[in-house]
Amino acid sequence: MIRALIFWILVSLAINVLTGLVAFAMATAEAPKPTLPQSTAGIVVLTGGSGERIRRAAQLLQNKTGQRLLVSGVNPKVSEPDLLGLSGLSSQDLSCCLDVDRHAMNTRGNAKQIAIWAKIHNYDHLLVVTSGYHMPRTLLELQAALPTTALWPVSVASTGPAKQHLLRRSVTEYAKYLVVLVLGVPEPNGTEAS
Question: CB within 8 A of 142, min separation 6: which ones?
Answer without folding.
Answer: 111, 114, 115, 126, 128, 149, 151
